[in-house]
């Protein structure tokens, strides 16, 4: 089942948002208009109702006599369009400005509600075929309920006006729906077009044309879409570099394996070309043994490199007493350096622990120490030190060797990097690339500082146990 595209979702969201906003505006306009009209009507009813009640209360304590006086008749005549009803405390209609149908229960209901509330109130009622809004004022003489004044005003015109307004708003909303959806489609297309272009360009990129500087076009919009394009191009550049490194790595591995295998092949070919003496066969086997060792060593380094560059998150670390490990390496280094009359020294802080794989870390450190000893002239000195610095364990491998040329220093941890003659201290194989991978797998960092003729210092920072898990 095909999922709904982003374009469709944008159209829906845009249309729904605009519809909701339009409905809110129209509803607010309708209810504000309704409130204004009824408020104006209520003000008129209140003014006239209070006036009639005041006049009546001044006339007499006898409601029936007061209702017959000319003043009330004149007061009714002064209220054109108003429906005035006067009721006594028994609910009887004493006087009204219009003829009242005896079967009409409207005023009975209003009278009963007046008895309950004992305060002025508004009610909408249907009197015959006319919709009326009534304002009822209770009359109290000497703190006794004497009756009520009911002032009514037709609201048919208001209701018809509101119905017409509602119809206009609904029709307007329906008419606006078409351009709203059309506008949503246009804006969605405009917003999605750069993404569609990038998607099409990305589909055309593969391993064959990745090296042809293929990139997605930058829409220059100054927003998140431009940021996405820049991110894609940055990703493509990293992939391009990775592919190039892998191709170079495969070529370098093939070259490293080709030499010993070719030598082995030639030796065997020569050996079987004719009968040889026992000593000659032993010589051929000895050369074959050396060549096979070179092949095995290269393959072993490749496997170590593959492990070191694997996701460090998959490594199940063990707790390592780094102080004991460095002390052991110092002893091994002293034995390795004895024949060259090189001194091995250094201060090792005790009880420093980290998390990781001890065998991998041991071999990586041994690789560094071996390089330091191998390319330090006699007499020389190699220093191996360890101490804490904040949440890090700091390891220093320092020698007084021939140093590394500045032009080669940034590249010494690359696989199969071929340095200048001054950089023969680190050879040209996989050793330092493996060291870098192991240190990264332990969430650490490594850097080298060197001066030609004065030596090299390798600095390694590894997180302590508490820092490793955070």
UniProtKB/TrEMBL annotation:
Residues 252-466 form the Histidine kinase domain. SUPFAM superfamilies: ATPase domain of HSP90 chaperone/DNA topoisomerase II/histidine kinase, HAMP domain-like, Homodimeric domain of signal transducing histidine kinase. Residues 189-244 form the HAMP domain. One of its GO terms (cellular component) is plasma membrane. InterPro entries: HAMP_dom (IPR003660), HATPase_C_sf (IPR036890), HATPase_dom (IPR003594), His_kinase_dom (IPR005467), HisK_dim/P_dom (IPR003661), HisK_dim/P_sf (IPR036097), Sig_transdc_His_kin-like_C (IPR004358), TCS_sensor_his_kinase (IPR050428). Gene3D superfamilies: 1.10.287.130, 6.10.340.10, Histidine kinase-like ATPase, C-terminal domain (3.30.565.10). GO terms for molecular function: phosphorelay sensor kinase activity. Its EC number is 2.7.13.3. PANTHER family: SENSOR HISTIDINE KINASE TRCS, SENSOR HISTIDINE KINASE YKOH. This is histidine kinase. The lineage of its organism: Bacteria, Candidatus Daviesiibacteriota.
């Amino acid at each position: 089942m095909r999922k709904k595209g982003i374009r469709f979702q944008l159209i829906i969201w845009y249309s729904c948002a605009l519809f909701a906003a339009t409905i809110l505006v129209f509803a607010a306009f309708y209810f504000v208009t309704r409130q204004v009209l009824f408020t104006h009507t209520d003000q008129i009813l209140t003014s006239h109702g209070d006036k009639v009640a005041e006049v009546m209360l001044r006339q007499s304590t006898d409601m029936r006599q007061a209702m017959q006086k000319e003043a009330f008749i004149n007061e009714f005549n002064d209220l054109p369009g108003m429906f005035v009803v006067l009721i006594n405390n028994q609910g009887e209609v004493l006087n009204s400005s219009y003829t009242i149908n005896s079967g009409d229960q409207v005023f009975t209901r209003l009278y009963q509600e007046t008895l309950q509330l004992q305060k002025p109130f508004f009610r909408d009622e249907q009197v015959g075929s006319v919709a009326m809004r009534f304002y009822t004022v209770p009359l109290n003489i000497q703190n006794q309920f004497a009756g009520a004044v009911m002032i009514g005003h037709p609201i048919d015109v208001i209701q018809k006006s509101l119905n017409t307004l509602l119809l206009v708003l609904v029709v307007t909303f329906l008419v606006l729906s078409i351009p709203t959806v059309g506008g949503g489609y246009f804006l969605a297309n405009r917003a999605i077009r750069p993404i569609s272009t990038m998607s099409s360009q990305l589909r055309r990129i593969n391993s064959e044309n990745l090296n042809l500087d293929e990139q997605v076009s930058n829409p220059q919009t100054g927003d998140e879409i431009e940021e996405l394009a820049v991110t894609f191009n940055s990703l493509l550049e990293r992939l391009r570099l990775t592919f190039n490194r892998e191709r170079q790595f495969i070529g370098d591995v093939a070259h490293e394996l080709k030499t010993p295998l070719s030598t082995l092949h030639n030796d065997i070919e020569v050996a079987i070309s004719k009968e040889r003496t026992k000593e000659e066969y032993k010589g051929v086997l000895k050369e074959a043994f050396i060549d096979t060792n070179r092949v095995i060593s290269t393959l072993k380094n490749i496997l170590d490199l593959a492990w070191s560059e694997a996701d460090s998150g998959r490594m199940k670390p063990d707790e390592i007493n780094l102080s004991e490990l460095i002390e052991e390496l110092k002893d091994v280094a002293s034995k390795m350096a004895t024949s060259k009359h090189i001194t091995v020294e250094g201060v090792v802080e005790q009880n420093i622990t980290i998390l990781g794989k001890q065998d991998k870390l041991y071999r990586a450190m041994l690789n560094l120490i071996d390089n330091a000893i191998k390319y330090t002239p006699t007499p020389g000195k190699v220093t191996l030190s360890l101490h804490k610095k904040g949440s890090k364990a700091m390891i220093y491998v320092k020698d007084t060797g021939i140093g590394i040329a500045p032009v080669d220093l940034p590249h010494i941890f690359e696989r199969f990097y071929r340095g200048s003659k001054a950089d023969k201290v680190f050879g040209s194989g996989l050793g330092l690339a493996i060291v870098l991978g192991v240190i990264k797998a332990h969430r650490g960092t490594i850097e080298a500082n060197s001066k030609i003729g004065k030596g090299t210092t390798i600095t390694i920072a590894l997180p302590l146990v508490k820092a490793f898990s955070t």
